[in-house]
Amino acid sequence: MPQSVEYDFDTDSRCAILTFNRPDVLNAIDVAMAQSFCAAVLRATAEPGIRLVVIRGAGRAFVAGGNLQRFADDFDNADQVVNQLLDHLHPAILALHTTPALVLACVQGVVAGAGLSLMLGCDLVLAADNTRFLLAYNKVAASPDCGGTYFLPRRIGLGPAMKLMVGSGELRAQEACSLGIVDWCVPFVDLEGNLASVCREILSGPSLAFGRYKALTRDPAEKLLAHLERERAAFCDATMSTDFREGVSAFLERRAAEFVGS
Fold this sequence. Notes:
Blueprint: E1 5-10, E2 15-20, H1 31-45, E3 52-57, E4 61-64, H2 68-72, H3 78-98, E5 102-107, E6 110-112, H4 114-120, E7 124-128, E8 132-134, H5 148-156, H6 158-166, E9 170-172, H7 173-179, E10 184-186, H8 191-203, H9 207-217, H10 221-238, H11 242-253
Parallel strand pairs: 2-3, 3-5, 4-6, 5-7, 6-8, 7-10
Antiparallel strand pairs: 1-2, 8-9
Helix pairs in contact: 1-3, 3-10, 4-5, 5-6
């Protein structure tokens, strides 16, 4: 049975490739995938001389967010599901944030919810022109997690970030590139070639210097960790609201939600 996150490491280039591999569910994150992702990230960032980490998704999506059905199965204990997921995802996010290796996300298709947050935590993002970015949390009356409220304002500014969070939260690839959410937007048919080209450029550069650039432009891990825990508390609080139950139910039933503000 294939791993939910595949791991490949090239010993010559010192490049690790991590691939979300549940294409039948658009790589939606459940606890098992969160655990597999954390293990893969910790393995990659512990590789001696690691220079580049590439994160991508198999099939028609990068990551289509979390598995909402798991919340609907037991709303009374939804906060426990949140904690189970984040107990694995937070160490992975911190490891990617602090590794001196550059982290490149290569995305296509759907990038939603937690998938968008994880992408935003990468140093660089290469996107196919068929990519749809969906913040989506306001559709289910939840709070962004996985560093979404930390990384998004740092990429595009507070006002544009808030506009996305309270609005439709949907962007096409070219618009995301114009805003600075992604760094390259390329035709889907040329995605593999462009990925290879970007990787060659990074791997031919001075890795030690790149690591210093990263360290100097990123906040200390303690600041990110404190923010991640604030996000966790906000998401757990959200799961106790009437609006959260309505939002998740409406999403799964494919109907418009009727929020009441409680």
